[in-house]
């Protein structure tokens, strides 16, 4: 229990440090001294394949040489520069390191003159004798007497490598997460640095692939799934030792769902809350029935910035290259940096539920002393309707419980623009209620398992759970189409909404509509574009301003609820009732919330956007056609009659493609001859150069095959 509490405190300290250091206008690596690894080459995403994770490089100005091996006499500008170099070197070889020794000059100033960086397996562990009657928990030592080290000494204004040993007496594993964390200031002491990255990754790999860490079962699963459905997408990332570090997959239904509901996405990494759970992460969202939908899954063993970049770019390729409008994640510095690079135009927000959950741990002693604090804090975050109301409630809580010196709460308030929904209301997040919460992967795991489980068993149960979700969606569709909701007013607006929205979304709209009847609405500005003040009572601090355009029959509200959730707020509805508007304009019914969210008159609404990118490679064209085929299959399977018609259409389309392919082949043959042979003008006029139909044709299929191979080689 003591160890668990200590680990939790360490995580909290790291988390607060991340939060305190974040700046929305600065990416990590800019204006600070941290060292962020960057990929040696641009990552590649393909439907099927294995990507090798290249060794990382030290960030350096353009024109700087590749990272070198350490040598005697090598010079650095400072001891920190030497440490950064050795950190990069240790990561590339795959071993954790620490500062073994340092020495200062004698005298008043005591200037640092020597620093020695050693492998974390340096030295021999010696058990300290304990007093009689005392029992101490045995600690596992990682020290194996390794001699590898680099020592630098100060020489005037430079630091020079004076001693060096590069040989290790142990196996070198994958990239060190400890070195990664230490370089960013997440691990400040040698005690914390005892957690070896290679050991941590080994544990994650064992959680995912079993005791032997064999990933062949996962590869077999991917092959089987793709054999059953060619639209199944997967990609695998390996390190320099050919060990699987990360893998991603998305089935046809997940890729199809993203076309309809991929505007707001949550990246779920809650597996970290369960020590038994494998490193299973998901991209998810909500459908038009407010049910959770999956857009892709991954096993994330390596959590460096490069790995996140690889995962996000791979997922984006699987989803057709269209990024989401908004993305909700846990707070993680490497993840945040990767999101800024891969999704520069996506609004990124930290999950409020995860932050509140961590607050229960970080403020446990305060909650114990003040039982009402937790409820007041959560109410402040969840129920405040304006920024002013939130900040006043927060300040009141801080003063009431004398928490001004609490670093955790101060850190959270400093980054309130990154996780409090009130500050992000101008962006769509598909949240119809402040209490809306998706089932997490950790919730799923605890629902079906209570200890470690094999990957095969986990994936089987996950497939069954997804099948159950699809059945729930079909049932919700049937309920929406076959039953009528109970109306609470005689308003034509409520009746109109009942015929357009799905049942659950209409219930949310109806709640807003009924609430609008209890507001006081006052016109504060006349004209074609008028303004109204909307409040529950005259003394309310939460007053909203609605701007109404009488010509276009449109309105906007300072609460920005429509922009955030996609349904009209009670304030605008109150104004519409006052101006006697009988029907809502079509633009106020967001298609993704309607009963026809998954219907469209054309095959691909984004065909214009994808046209240029789909011509770049076979992979892009393949993915684009798969998306079209999935849509046809969804429509074709709805009834026997439509199924038969769809089969006939597919057969005709396939016949046309074969015929076009033959014609294109003849054109390619002529092109190959014209390009590869020098033809005299006279011969060309007489047609003599084209009399041999076999000339140059035999090499063409081989050339095409080579081109296809290059498209799939990583």
TrEMBL record:
Keywords: Metal-binding, Nucleus, Zinc, Zinc-finger. One of its GO terms (cellular component) is nucleus. It holds the Pfam family SWIM. InterPro entries: FAR1_DNA_bnd_dom, FHY3/FAR1, MULE_transposase_dom, Znf_PMZ, Znf_SWIM. It comes from the Eukaryota. One of its GO terms (molecular function) is zinc ion binding. Residues 544-580 form the SWIM-type domain. GO terms for biological process: regulation of DNA-templated transcription. Residues 23-69 are annotated as: Disordered. Residues 23-34 have a biased composition (Polar residues). It is found in: Nucleus. Its main location: nucleus. PROSITE patterns: ZF_SWIM. SMART domains: ZnF_PMZ. Putative transcription activator involved in regulating light control of development. Belongs to the FHY3/FAR1 family. This is Protein FAR1-RELATED SEQUENCE. It comes from Phoenix dactylifera.
């Amino acid at each position: 229990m003591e160890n668990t509490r200590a680990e939790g405190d360490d995580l909290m300290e790291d988390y607060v440090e991340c939060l305190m250091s974040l700046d929305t206008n600065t990416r990590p690596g800019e204006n600070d001294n941290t060292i962020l690894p960057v990929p040696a080459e641009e990552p590649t995403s393909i439907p099927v394949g294995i990507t090798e994770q290249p060794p990382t490089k030290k960030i350096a100005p353009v024109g700087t040489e590749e990272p070198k091996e350490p040598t005697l006499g090598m010079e650095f500008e400072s001891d920190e520069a030497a440490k950064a170099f050795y950190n990069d070197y240790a990561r590339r070889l795959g071993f954790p390191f620490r500062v073994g020794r340092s020495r200062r000059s004698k005298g008043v100033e005591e200037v640092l003159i020597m620093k020695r960086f050693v492998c974390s397996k340096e030295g021999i562990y010696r058990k300290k004798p304990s007093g009689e009657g005392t029992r101490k928990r045995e600690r596992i030592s990682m020290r194996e007497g390794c001699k590898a080290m680099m020592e630098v000494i100060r020489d005037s204004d430079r630091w020079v490598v004076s001693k060096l040993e590069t040989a290790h007496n142990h196996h070198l594993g994958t990239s060190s997460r400890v070195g990664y964390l230490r370089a960013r200031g997440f691990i400040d002491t040698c005690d914390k640095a005892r957690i070896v990255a290679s050991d941590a990754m080994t544990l994650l790999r064992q959680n995912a692939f079993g005791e032997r860490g064999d990933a062949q079962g996962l590869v077999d699963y991917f092959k089987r799934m793709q054999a059953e459905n060619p639209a199944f997408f997967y990609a695998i990332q390996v390190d320099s030792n050919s060990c699987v570090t990360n893998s991603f997959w998305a089935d046809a239904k997940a890729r199809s769902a993203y076309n309809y509901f991929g505007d707001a996405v949550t990246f779920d990494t809650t597996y970290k809350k369960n020590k038994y759970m494998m490193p299973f992460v998901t991209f998810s969202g909500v459908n038009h029935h407010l049910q959770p939908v999956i857009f892709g899954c991954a096993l994330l063993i390596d959590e460096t910035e490069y790995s996140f970049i690889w995962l996000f770019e791979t997922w984006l390729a699987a989803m057709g290259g269209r990024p989401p409008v908004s993305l909700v994640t846990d707070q993680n510095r490497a993840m945040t940096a990767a999101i800024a690079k891969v999704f520069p135009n996506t609004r990124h927000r930290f999950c409020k539920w995860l932050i509140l959950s961590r607050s229960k741990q970080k403020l446990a002693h305060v909650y114990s002393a003040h039982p009402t604090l937790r409820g007041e804090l959560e109410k402040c975050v969840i129920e405040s309707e304006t920024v002013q109301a939130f900040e006043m409630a927060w300040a009141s809580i801080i003063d009431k419980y004398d928490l001004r010196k609490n670093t955790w709460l101060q850190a959270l308030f400093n980054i309130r623009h990154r996780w409090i929904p009130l500050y992000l209301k101008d962006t769509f997040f598909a949240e119809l209620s402040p209490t809306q919460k998706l089932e997490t992967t950790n919730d799923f795991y605890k629902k079906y398992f209570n200890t470690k489980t094999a990957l095969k068993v986990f994936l089987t149960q996950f497939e069954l759970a997804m099948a159950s979700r699809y059945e729930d969606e079909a049932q919700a569709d049937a309920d929406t189409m076959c039953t009528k909701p109970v109306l609470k007013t005689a308003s034509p607006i409520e009746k109109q909404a009942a015929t357009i929205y799905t049942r659950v979304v209409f219930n949310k709209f109806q709640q807003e509509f009924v609430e609008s009847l209890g507001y006081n609405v006052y016109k504060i500005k006349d004209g074609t574009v008028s303004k109204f003040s909307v409040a529950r009572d005259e003394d309310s601090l939460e007053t909203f301003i609605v701007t109404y355009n009488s010509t276009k029959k449109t309105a906007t509200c300072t609460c920005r609820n429509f922009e955030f959730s996609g349904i009209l707020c009670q304030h605008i509805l109150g104004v519409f009732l006052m101006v006697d508007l009988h029907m809502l304009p079509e633009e106020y019914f967001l298609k993704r919330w309607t009963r026809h969210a998954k219907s469209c008159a054309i095959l691909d609404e984004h065909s214009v956007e994808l046209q240029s990118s789909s011509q770049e490679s076979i992979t892009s064209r393949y993915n684009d056609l798969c998306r079209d085929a999935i849509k046809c299959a969804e429509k074709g399977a709805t009834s026997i009659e439509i199924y038969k018609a769809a089969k006939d259409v597919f057969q005709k389309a396939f016949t046309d493609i074969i015929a076009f392919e033959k014609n294109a082949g003849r054109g390619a043959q002529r092109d190959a001859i014209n390009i590869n042979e020098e033809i005299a003008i006279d011969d060309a006029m007489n047609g003599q150069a084209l009399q041999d139909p076999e000339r140059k044709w035999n090499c063409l299929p081989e050339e095409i095959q080579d081109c296809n191979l290059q498209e799939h080689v990583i």
